[in-house]
């Protein structure tokens, strides 16, 4: 045998060992080849597997190992060099790959491990989310239940239905065994079982309201778990066998309308509560969950609101019914009133005509009778008839006027008229009566009083006449003064006429007239009654039975129509009284001279401020005497002139109100006259005012005049304006000393 | 200086429908009075022994009348006259009397002319405007 290059085993191969090795190697190779196949197969199936190339590496490593072992099969026996080379290559490759794999695994294995951790973490998270989902779902369930409950509760406005529905729905939603509502009694000291779920007719159990458990529930707005043994929870007799379920109680605020203020929430202290008790089924081992408690609380609040709505609705329905009834009643009352007014108007219209016709006949025929020949007795009788019938006619007119005034059917007849003339006419009408009673009547019109005014002349005159007539009627002696002037805004706001708020307007002015008399006066209690119809002052009525008591009421109506105010002041019985009225008149646009249609009865030029003022003028000088007389005549005075002191002595009387005397005539002691007058008239109000007219400007004259008791000194020459102002000052102040 | 002052205007104001001839009456009264007074004065001053008191009283009267009418110049003359009377100055009095007479004649002529013209105007169908007093 030649020596061969083949490697020979050292020992002789054991056949059996060889066989086993051969088989194991074969199976190892098989396994090594199949593992990657399996891996590939399952990875392909799973579709998500990171690290593919690791797998490739691992596969390669295993395959090469398998290849190595496979090739090893051939090396058991004699093998050629090729086999050896292949074997070597395989082994080398295997070594490389396995080393690479080993190195790679250092990085891979921690990653793989962490994957596992992450998986665990995600599982936990999933579990948590599941839990939360469960919670949300329960809450949503609760919300749905609440909405449904609220809907049920709010769908009715009937109190009982609301409460019943609440209990029913709550019972259904929460699967309660029993649900009960305790309402406070009227006294507020007890709670009475009002509604239950299962029991049809709750017997009137009551519990006192001051129980600690009840206070506990009332003091919190949460649902409170209470013991099943407390009186409010013991609705059914305990059978003793079973465990009663848990009980929860919640307060239900009872809101009253009066609790709501506009900007405030109702005070807690005034709240009344009802108690709602809910019981879980016994023997169910159920617990009250938080969401269920919340549900209960929300429902309790909703119930409170729904109840208050129901209460409000009830109130408004009641109020509406009441209003409707009242409306009907008012309607029928109005119709009755209208019928009554119509009937009265018809009656008055008929009576007006019917009454006036015979009245007219009586008056006319009596006047005619007066014209015929009559014996004195007959004349007296006829005069009485005439007077009485005139009175009656006035009365009828007054009544008719007043009823027309009350209706508001009276309208003022507006026109332009002479204001001053109205005053003068009234004065003329009143003068005869006044002079019979020996009363002095003085009229004083302010210089700024317009001569013409726009208004109802007839009614103004009627008012003025009435007022002045009253003054004359109720004055037995003394004087009456009538003043008329334009009221300025300060005097318009009289404290005695607080409800009168005149507004100054363009083209209008307020005429204020004051009639003062020194008569019997009126006691302050009677003053409010003066203007009421048919009410007469008793004391006056006794003395003076004429007059119906309507006069002042009519005046007041007229004055009101003229947007004015009338009132009477008096300091008391016997102290005279003053009647004051203010009326609104318009100012005519055109001035006097261009309008010839307004020719007055009295002279236009000048203002007769002092009509009827009796004046005595003493002056030696004829010219100045006639000038002074002319001045005074122009002012409307009743002037008598004397030219000597003796004449003056003879003529002067208490009728003269002013005596003008010229005192600068030397040789004549005018002062003597003054002294004489003082002696003659001891009482001050009878003595005429003595005024000296003098041309001398020295103080000596003035002193002398004052010494002898003259009331005034005027410097000559006297202008018209000066005389007018002097006279008005004199009459008002009763003294005038012009500064020299 | 004017013959008539504001006083005359005042008098004219006093004339109205109830007193249509007031001015004429007063003026004629004034003329009568003044002439009488002037005559008295002339006579008094002609006396050998002049009674100054009486003269003074006459002049005083004249002064009063003229101021009532508004005859300013006469009044001023009278004032001067009275002063001379107090001094008992005969020459002064005489001269003043002359002056007073002159003034009187002047006023009288003027007034007569005025009235004549007014009558003519009224006769011709016009109207006499009232003078406005301005204060």
TrEMBL record, chain A:
Signal peptide: none annotated. ADP binds at residues 470-473, 517, 533, 548, 552. Its cofactor is Cu cation. CDD domains: HisKA (cd00082), REC_ETR-like (cd19933). Pfam families: ETR1_N, GAF, HATPase_c, HisKA, Response_reg. Cu cation binds at residues 65, 69. Its main location: endoplasmic reticulum. It is a multi-pass membrane protein. Keywords: ATP-binding, Copper, Disulfide bond, Endoplasmic reticulum, Ethylene signaling pathway, Kinase, Membrane, Metal-binding, Nucleotide-binding, Phosphoprotein, Receptor, Transferase, Transmembrane, Transmembrane helix, Two-component regulatory system. InterPro entries: CheY-like_superfamily (IPR011006), ETR (IPR014525), ETR1_N (IPR058544), GAF (IPR003018), GAF-like_dom_sf (IPR029016), HATPase_C_sf (IPR036890), HATPase_dom (IPR003594), His_kinase_dom (IPR005467). One of its GO terms (cellular component) is endoplasmic reticulum membrane. Binds 1 copper ion per dimer. The modification 4-aspartylphosphate is found at residue 662. One of its GO terms (biological process) is negative regulation of ethylene-activated signaling pathway. Belongs to the ethylene receptor family. This is Ethylene receptor. It comes from Citrus x changshan-huyou.
Automatic annotation (TrEMBL), chain B:
This is Histidine-containing phosphotransfer protein 1. It comes from Citrus sinensis.
